[in-house]
Write a structure and sequence with these properties.
Blueprint: E1 4-9, E2 20-25, E3 38-43, E4 46-52, H1 67-76, E5 81-90, E6 100-103, E7 105-108, H2 134-146, E8 151-153, E9 156-159, H3 168-176, E10 181-183, H4 189-195, E11 200-208, H5 220-244, H6 271-276, H7 282-290
Parallel strand pairs: 1-4, 1-5, 5-11, 6-8, 7-9, 9-10
Antiparallel strand pairs: 2-3, 3-4, 5-10, 6-11
Helix pairs in contact: 2-5
Amino acid sequence: MSWTIGIIGGSGLYAIDGLEDARWITVDSPWGAPSDAVLAGRIGAVELRFLPRHGRGHRIPPDALNMRANIDVLKRLGCTDLLAISAVGSLNAAMAPGDFVVVDQFIDRTHDRPGSFFGPGLVAHVPLADPTCPRLSALAGDAVQAAGGRLHRGGTYLAMQGPAFSTRAESRLHRAWGCDLVGMTAMPEAKLAREAELPYALLAMVTDRDCWHDGADVAVTDIMAVMQANAALARASIRALCAALPAARSPSPIDTVLDGAIMTAPAQRDPALLARNAAVLARWLANQRTG
């Protein structure tokens, strides 16, 4: 099996330069409009599908993202794995602005965001104890180091609702919980990727130290300055990742996670919801027909 890597670009990363056969593709989703068209192309033998999470020009705030549509269109475009890149604040003194962190855990404090492809008439419970893919995470971390970035392997990301930044009390509470980073976009994105049987890794770009310490508040101008510096390194890391991927993609346990997750009996399944999930359930539905 070959690799098709979906890249979800966060704040400050709205395109990838140097793609071969590059073209923007508009894909319809039954879940509504995704954040933007998808930039398709390749680097060497690796196919890439890049979606700017906030849209080009940063049009969409974190609490208004249609994450189901975003994951759905990347699945429809044949992605085998997803690498998300996000700007974050640091709750860990060792993780400084300019550093990259390979996230391996999440605490979800968002609300009122549709967080599943499933529901009444089609119930599923995917395992999420380890919400990121260890293989892709390791490869992404290696790529950052190959590109010359400062890297931390492992970190807990607190997903907050936004769009306002934390109060100082909230920031100190999140730090007391053992969180290393705070952001607004990784949840329910990571959960939806798991439901779509897409191995997911998150490279977090530290832009600020949040506000748990005594001192100045978080300022967008400071964040933008760090993001602009980090964007070039993020692009270089993507190129390094493509160069380092094995020629053939071996199967991942995440590829078949729905086999043990769907609870609803066949006679009780909602045909409309099955149809809406045609892309997410494509492999599972094919197995149901032939099993």
